[in-house]
Amino acid sequence: MKKISIIILMILPLLSYGKEIEISDNAVKNYEIETYVTDSKNVTLPRSALVVSRDNYFIYLKDRNFFEELQVHPVKVTKDTVVLKFDTVKEREFVTKGSPYLRIVFLNDTDSEAE
């Protein structure tokens, strides 16, 4: 079962799709999705958290069993890390491992909605 909602985030320089997809505990375990929680304005994540598609960058946030895809404009990307800057202090749970799997889930969901 998936949940679609519109969320307005006060985050810059992020562009939110505002779409969430629920993923089962079993899938999270099978695809070894790992997360990192922080409430910092400046967030440094492992490079594995970032998915690059053409000229677009994506990260994923987790809230319970729901995942949200965000298109981002990183402040800095190195071979090992990605740095993001937020305008607000808010506790967020970032996916640090398993992001490519989530990208496929979101792409498949988008394709099924188009049909």
Describe the structure.
The chain has 115 residues and is an alpha+beta fold. The protein has a single domain (14-114), classed as conserved putative lor/sdh protein from methanococcus maripaludis s2 fold (Beta Barrel), CATH 2.40.420. It is built from 2 helices and 9 strands; from the N terminus they run E-H-E-E-E-E-E-E-E-E-H. The protein has helices at residues 25-30, 99-114, and strands at residues 14-22, 34-38, 42-46, 51-53, 56-63, 66-72, 76-77, 81-85, 92-97. The strands form 3 sheets. A 4-stranded antiparallel sheet has the order 1-6-5-4, covered by helices on one side. Strands 3-8-7 form a 3-stranded antiparallel sheet, with no helix packed on it. Strand 5 and strand 6 form a beta hairpin. The longest helix is centred in the last third of the chain and has 16 residues, at 99-114. The chain is globular and about 30 Å long. It starts with 13 loop residues before the first strand and ends with a helix.
